[in-house]
Design goal:
Blueprint (H helix, E strand, L loop, with lengths): L1 H13 L9 H10 L7 H14 L5 H17 L5 H27 L7 H40 L9
Length: about 160
């Protein structure tokens, strides 16, 4: 199922969407929650694949690092349930992505002065994009979880009175 979600993520990122409203963060968290550290390549392959089509950008390595951080955030919180899983985890993922990727913008470009003031200006300028990141992480993460649960339920053999 996680491979299907990766393909769906690639498709959704390539379709027109609002800035920073993409399922990559949700995929990274969910792939990590599956409990197999060797799957860290999956969200990175999804973003790399789409970047080949959409184009690379300054500081892209920081974005990739962000998705790696989100993967391991999912991995280390894979036992989360309820509110922690459905709300807190995607929002924490959005916050981590915001902090790491925008630190990268500040550190690797000349858009902002290399001072604490420049870093604060960078984070402030990125706040409008954070709303879309948080909304997309909440929507896609919970949508992916629901889709995976539905597929698992449909794949379970049905017990009839004769089989029980």
């Amino acid at each position: 199922m996680i491979y299907f979600l990766a393909l769906l993520t690639i498709l959704l990122r390539l379709l027109p969407h609002a800035p920073n409203f993409a399922p990559l963060g949700a995929l990274a968290l969910l792939a990590g929650m599956r409990g197999d550290k060797s799957k860290v390549w999956l969200p990175l392959a999804a973003v790399l694949t789409t970047d080949f089509v959409l184009g690379f950008y300054p500081g892209f390595a920081w974005v990739y690092l962000s998705y790696g951080v989100l993967f391991f955030t999912g991995y280390f919180t894979r036992q989360a349930k309820g509110f922690k899983r459905s709300i807190a985890l995607p929002l924490a993922g959005s916050g981590l992505f915001y902090l790491v990727s925008n630190f990268g913008v500040w550190a690797s470009s000349s858009m902002y002065s290399p001072t604490l003031t420049g870093l604060v200006q960078c984070y402030a300028a990125a706040l409008p994009f954070f709303r879309n990141t948080a909304a997309s992480d909440l929507l896609y993460f919970n949508g992916f979880v629901a889709l995976a649960s539905l597929v698992a339920a449909l794949a379970r053999p049905k017990l009839t009175p004769e089989k029980a």
